[in-house]
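Let us practice reading a record.
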Amino acid sequence: MTQRTLLRHLLAWVLGALAVVWLGFVAIGLRTGVHEADELTDGHLASTASLLLSQRGIEFVGARDASAPAEDLKRHDYQQSMSVVVWDQEGRVVSRVGDAPEPAFDPSEGFATLDLGQPPEAWRTFARWDSPEHRRRVMVMLAIDERDDLAWDIAGQVAEPGFWLLPVVAIALGFAIRRGLRPLGRLSNDVARLDIQSGETLRADHPHEEFRAVVDSINALTLRYQAAMARERHLAGELAHELRTPLASIALQAQALGGPLTDEERRHAQARVAQDALRAGQVLQHLLTLARASHAELAEKAVAFDVAPMAARVLADHVQPALDGRHELALTGSTSLPVTGHEVLLELALRNLVENALGHAPPDTVVEVQLDDAGRWLQVTNQTRENSATQDDAGVSRLGLGLGHRVVEKVVAIHGASFAEVPRARGERCYRITFGPAGV
């Protein structure tokens, strides 16, 4: 199947529009030609009648010599074969010339269309008396068929140049459109040769303003793609490094468990295995979140949703971990915060922040999610242990507050928002996600 091209598409539409306009002009030309031919014929009839009536002292002869061929009387393509009948005031035929059948006497004057002869044939007539005394009445007649032949001949002469002009215009338009689309063809070839993986950008030497805007947009997308890929590679490298450490520790502790150990050493090794396994699980969870965020950014459409019900659902899912750690959960602030984005991704980011808060806040403290519709932000506050990096779960703590927040930054960037730590009183930490204006 032949692939459609823009050149053929434009040429088809232009020629189609040209053909419609040309047909309209031809139809108007034909109609005008017929009308003007009718007017011209009527004028000839009236002029001939006036000329005959103005001649005095001329005897009208009878019918022409039948042996003379009709063609001898016509010396011009547009010469018409008129017939003339002259009556006296009593209605007697004085003279009759031409091929028209003799019409019945009628004292009226003016133009008329009469059906004469057997079979009937239409004739255009003009009758006039010579004076108010009505001594002589002249009627000039012309066959309607001959008048129509003249009309169509004139109309055809008007429309004929269009038949020759249309192919010439089509060829000229095809050449002009092809030549005009050449810059677009060059831009298409440049886009086809573009290697986005290498960070190559389009040439900026396209002279047209519309093409420069396209080139700038493609180059901006290329740079954004390269920057995103660089961030992805850097974050993936950090996550891989974090995953390598607990896996290596699990392997060492497993080997140690196979050897002679005291009960205290065995319990310690088992605790390290459990801790490293939890850490590895968190790294894998962040990797999956990162992959899902990248997929949603490229494949899923952003929709409008309310953050408040989603935040309430996240806190409800963490009621049991909060009870186990002797924490309280709270949702305060605005009752509604509408945003546009990916609800699943933002929920994953909020879960990450809440889990970090529960993991680092001391017992008998409040982990609070605050919403502010006027300021277009949500934040999670908690109290953290001092010198937490020196405790046994320092690795998990570092993971939650480091790489986990890198994943949150990725999700927030997809939503066109910002993520930062808000300064609070000593012993408290607050992390805020600020959205753009409503409707953006």
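A brief commentary: Confidence is low (pLDDT under 50) at residues 62-73, 386-401.
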